[in-house]
Target: N-acetylmuramoyl-L-alanine amidase
Amino acid sequence: MWLRRTAVCAMVVPLAFLVLRDAPVRLAAPERTTAKPAAPPAAPRPAIVSRAEWHADESLVKEDAVYTGTVRAVFVHHTGHTNNYDCADAPEMLRAMEEAHVRGEGWDDIGYNFVVDRCGTIYEGRAGGVGRTVRGAHATGFNAHSVGIAALGTFDPGVTVPKALIEGIAKVGAWKLDRSIDPRGIVRMVSTNDDSLYRRGEVVYLHAVAGHRDTFSTYCPGEALYAQLPAIRAEMARLRDRKK
Model:
């Protein structure tokens, strides 16, 4: 069922697992606790529900976080959950997601850096500190110098993407993206994994705010959410301009 270079963005629904196949990239001599302090963000930090608040199981985390340089790209995902969940159930859904990523996929921790529910609530994903550039496991070949933001739900063609969800993604994206980069612009990235759409070492020019499908053979983040990327970019730019 799972062929090489074919995947969906993934997570757990209450009755079944829908699992992402992106493996985290292991860089040589990764930067850990010696990362330099980042420049001040271009947008204010939004309210974020911490791992402690959604009761992440820290005993599942296998290794310390790995830190990379500044965030040059934002990758938007969807998790594959049903869309009619009660937002009060989001923490439970995240705990199931964490277990699926660690015990099911064998990863160090949850793959995404942040998760946003349909009510616009932003949740801390992978451990390591929301204010730092923690390398996730969300975009094979492009996990370094990026942030993975997952929308809790499945956004097939015709599905209405809640405005609150769009705004939540934009808020955390505007805060995390390096202040020198226009969220409506193009960035230069380098693939680190042949399993992406680009060979290892290949220079790639991507939207600063991209969908998972832009670098991997996958449907993620769903047709409906992918169509909202221009709106997310515009909202990110507005939030950053407002701080000036």
Summary: The helical segments are 90-104, 163-176, 223-226, 229-243. Strands lie at 11-13, 16-18, 73-78, 114-116, 122-124, 146-151, 186-190, 203-207, 209-211. Residues 1-8, 10-35 have pLDDT under 50 and may be disordered. Residues 90-104 form the longest helix (15 residues).
